[in-house]
């Protein structure tokens, strides 16, 4: 296996543009620009790969043919409605099928590179559209690129694929698509569905018949900070991955759990997000011989958060992590200023936060985070042969 890292990128990925909408492709453009200015993309062993669109044979591994036809036709029909399209969340836009298929193709290219041994890790920061269902657009997502890539891995011979989603919103589309497939473990750490879209992701969602225990959900109360989030992540994710023994790890790394994100209510920092990327890389190294496919996802603090968070992700995937105290390059600040986005430009790659945490223990007076951890462990751990009360599991 090559030790290279593939970064799938081309400016054409920015065509997934819903117009005046929270999911602004400028966040991806500024991420790539920041990573480039920091020297991340020119590191030895980093290979930039231009994506090709996913064809219908790939897309219909997870999406209904009638849905693909609707996505293609919608921009030509000004009165189109249906399949979740034409809403404020999922407006119809020109080139919708083509740009969505390109994002899916980019994540598939990342997965293929890792599975075939052409690279140890691969990243598509434009991907992570995890809410799309088999026959419905949802939550700003038209085609579910992580699910298409996972289906491709299964077709290539993978027997156990783990999907870990750290977006603030539940990874409902990926979970739904693989609900009955015991070959795919879906793990989502997110804000409670009682407070946030999409209203799913409770601990008792554990997988369909024959696949019980392969859906794992860790919902957290609003306001959780780095220490609580890390405590929950490490109380659940390593244990279930070790029990499942995946051959490859696929991650959705939405940055919208950050305290500045306008669409959610968690209180994370880029320092905490960086720590999560390091933890996922370590798990891939431990369990999957390093095979890790990482995608972007949500994130609506377009300047203040997303470019820094995903540049940290790219650094972790390509080699040494970036020192949090690193200054953002002047050329990147000038680029942001030239866009007149009306956002404060961050001067450093840190929020000056300490992402350390106290490991979960089953004793003591539980707080809201510990109650959430206990609920998830109690529900799903026995299905995986784990002891919900033993902190070693």
TrEMBL record:
The keyword Protein biosynthesis does not apply. Pathway: Ketone degradation; acetoin degradation. One of its GO terms (biological process) is epigenetic regulation of gene expression. Residues 21-315 form the Histone deacetylase domain. Pfam families: Hist_deacetyl. It comes from the Bacteria. This is Acetoin utilization protein AcuC.
